[in-house]
Amino acid sequence: MNFKISCLLFIRNHEEKILLLKRNKSPNIGLWSPPGGKLNSENGESPFECAIREAYEETGMVLTNNDLSLFGYISEKSYENTSHWLMFLFDCKKTISSIPKEFDEGFFNFFTRDEIKNLEIPNSDHQLIWPFYDQRKIGFWGISADCLDAKSPKIKIEANPI
């Protein structure tokens, strides 16, 4: 399986609603996900550089390293039985004022954290992403998950700030 490295950006508006993308492309086609994308490893891109580039490409936001807080990573083995992923999770300190324009990867909307619980999101996100987003201010998280069984990934906490 291919190994892919990516970043996810948790961007909020002034009302603390979170920006999500309804994806037109795989992975997670038809589902809501935070904006982000794959790291350009052939260019030696760092996770911060990837987050800054993806924020601009997808939302038009101009960010610097100081606008981002890396709060964890998630390593997913056998995601959708097609590839392995290493995702860096970034909390964006800078707010966004309006919904970005629709583009080829999908369209955006803002949601409260409670609304996200009832959205169509990837099954594993309920266990792998959102609980750690909720605890992002505690410190750095490191999560490993075997996703061979998509409905019940085997989760191991590798770095725990508590």
Keywords:
six-stranded mixed β-sheet, single chain, 4 helices, three-stranded antiparallel β-sheet, alpha+beta, Nucleoside Triphosphate Pyrophosphohydrolase, 162 residues
Which strand order does the major sheet show? 4-1-6-5-8-9
Helices and strands, in N-to-C order?
EEEEHEEEHHHEE
- Name the shape in a single word: globular
Global mean pLDDT: 94
Q: What is the tally of beta strands?
A: 9
Give me the Rg, rounded. Answer: 15 Å
Q: Describe the oligomeric state of these chains in a short phrase.
A: single chain
What number of domains? 1
- CATH second-level architecture: Alpha-Beta Complex
Total of helices: 4
Main sheet characteristics: 6 strands, mixed
Q: Beta-strand level of the residues, as a percent range?
A: 35-45%
